[in-house]
């Protein structure tokens, strides 16, 4: 049977209330005498009743032992605490024919954080001791390390010196060997390169011969291809192109002849028109020249009278030009209270007319008898 004895808020030897739970494995003894005792104790009871009797016995011993121990003894040495409970409770349950197979402490705790504080204090002490131990160990280690480094440097200096001497001798010997090896290597490399150059030259000559042969074959193939392409072009391009070119040439020549004929016709037309216009101009010029000739002869024959006739012919035109602005005037009103004054103004304008004509044309109208007579009459 498995039992779980539990004691709550049991004061220890220091008066700290703890709650402790455990686990116990018990069984009924099989020896004849002890089995008879068990039968006498539990005859007529079921398994649960037996568990309750044994559980109460274990809890009573657990409670009594808790009161004799300190918290530190209970918490830090649980195995010893469980062993003590088992040893104290074993005789009592044995007299009931029950054997305790095992008893262990499952849990220990309190409600006032005593165990937590104890753990913190212990932890602080342990941490302090650990820090002190670490510091002392580091100090000792540093001292020992420095001593070891000094010894190491001394040994290293001596070893480096010997190594440097050996290395120098080795390098000298190595340089001598290397020089000899390099000479032999260079000779061998030169011979190898010369032989390689000869072989490469032979290979290159053979490659050139192969390339020449391939090129000849390629040239022959290209020549055949050129002939084939030429024939194909002649059949597909050149002959149709020549036919098209011939057709276009014929059309162009026909168009050219047409344009030439049209140009010649147009030129002939222009020439005929020009000849006709020239004849008209020549006839008009001849007529005008004849007219001018006749005029000149008439002017020369009649002298001042002819000039006077020209002036008199031009006077209406001059008067028209002078009076042209007045043509745009709808009405002219002359304001004067004296009719004789208007008449005098008109007479004055007529009297000034010969002087104006003389200034414009150089002809003196006053010398003409008819004009002179009219002017005198006005005066």
Automatic annotation (TrEMBL):
GO terms for biological process: protein localization to plasma membrane; regulation of myoblast differentiation. It comes from the Eukaryota. One of its GO terms (molecular function) is protease binding. The keyword Membrane applies. One of its GO terms (cellular component) is endosome. Keywords: Endosome, Membrane. SUPFAM superfamilies: Band 7/SPFH domain (SSF117892). Residues 38-220 form the Band domain. Gene3D superfamilies: Band 7 domain (3.30.479.30). InterPro entries: Band_7 (IPR001107), Band_7/SPFH_dom_sf (IPR036013), Flotillin_C (IPR031905), Flotillin_fam (IPR027705). It is found in: Membrane; Endosome. Heterooligomeric complex of flotillin-1 and flotillin-2 and caveolin-1 and caveolin-2. Interacts with ECPAS. Belongs to the band 7/mec-2 family. Flotillin subfamily. This is Flotillin.
């Amino acid at each position: 049977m498995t039992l779980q004895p539990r004691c709550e808020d049991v004061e220890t030897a220091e008066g700290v209330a703890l709650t402790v739970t455990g686990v116990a494995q018990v069984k009924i003894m099989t020896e004849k005498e002890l089995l008879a005792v068990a039968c006498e104790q539990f005859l007529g009871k079921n398994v649960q009743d037996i568990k309750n009797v044994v559980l109460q016995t274990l809890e009573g011993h657990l409670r009594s032992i808790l009161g004799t121990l300190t918290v530190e003894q209970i918490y830090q040495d649980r195995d010893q605490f469980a062993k003590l409970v088992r040893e104290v409770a074993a005789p009592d349950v044995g007299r009931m024919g029950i054997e305790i197979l095992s008893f262990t402490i499952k849990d220990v705790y309190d409600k006032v954080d005593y165990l937590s504080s104890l753990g913190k204090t212990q932890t602080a002490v342990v941490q302090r001791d650990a820090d002190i131990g670490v510091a002392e160990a580091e100090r000792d280690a540093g001292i020992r390390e420095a001593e070891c480094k000094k010894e190491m440097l001394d040994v290293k200096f001596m070893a480096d010196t010997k190594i440097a001497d050996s290395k120098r001798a080795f390098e000298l010997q190595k340089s001598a060997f290397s020089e000899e090896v390099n000479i032999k290597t260079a000779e061998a490399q030169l011979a190898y390169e010369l032989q390689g150059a000869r072989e490469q030259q032979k290979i290159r000559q053979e490659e050139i011969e192969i390339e020449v042969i391939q090129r000849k074959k390629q040239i022959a193939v290209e020549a055949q291809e050129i002939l084939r392409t030429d024939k194909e072009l002649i059949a597909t391009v050149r002959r149709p192109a020549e036919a098209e070119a011939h057709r276009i040439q014929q059309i162009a020549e026909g168009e050219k002849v047409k344009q030439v004929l049209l140009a010649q016709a147009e030129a002939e037309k222009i020439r005929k028109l020009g000849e006709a216009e020239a004849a008209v101009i020549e006839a008009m010029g001849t007529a005008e020249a004849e007219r001018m000739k006749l005029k000149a002869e008439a002017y020369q024959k009649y002298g001042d009278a002819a000039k006077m006739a020209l002036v008199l012919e031009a006077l209406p035109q001059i008067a028209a030009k002078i009076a042209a602005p007045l043509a745009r005037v709808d009405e002219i009103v002359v304001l004067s209270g004296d009719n004789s004054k208007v008449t005098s103004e008109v007479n004055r304008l007529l009297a000034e007319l010969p002087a104006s004509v003389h200034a414009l044309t150089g002809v003196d109208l006053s010398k003409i008898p008819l004009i002179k007579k009219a002017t005198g009459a006005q005066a």
